[in-house]
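Input chain follows. Return structure tokens only.
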Amino acid sequence: MKLYHHPLSGHSHRARLLVSLLGLPHELVEVDLKAGAHKSPDFLKLNPFGQVPVLDDAGVIVADSNAILVYLAKRAGRGDWLPEDPSGAAAVQRWLSVAAGEVAYGPAAARLITVFGAKFNADEVIGRAHTLLARLESHLSAQDWLVGDQPTIADVAIYSYVAQAPEGNVDLSGYPSVKAFLGRIEQLSGFVPFVRTPVGLAA
């Protein structure tokens, strides 16, 4: 199993985090985004969208971080990480959609400005991030995990960019339940930390 990734990509981190939490043997293959390796002909054969991460499981190619989370949980037969019952599966899918929507256009976008120099409106995306965080705070004030009483791929999907939100000038200090949630994930066996972004990278 090979995971094509970049260490500063939150999408890559969520895939790397789950494969580690599940204890699945894998090889990490770093894709040099700065050099444009993700747009090379060979990489575009793996993912025509030219994005990381991509999972190659003995020739089974899975692109998109959330799709990789689903694949890994199913491949490992881990119904605890991805419930089989309709309501549980739907609840997880709801948070995968949040990860692809509100997270991507809020804290992830804010971090893209400072880390990669993206041309987003900082006030707008930081505002979206705080709207999301307020909703997460409310949800997590009543329960430890996003779905049910144990961690699922929903938690993994939300974790990476929320944990790194301060890199995008999004202050987490007003969200104690969110911070406690991040801490619970970081205490899981097999947890892999997100690398600290080098200071001044965007410059």
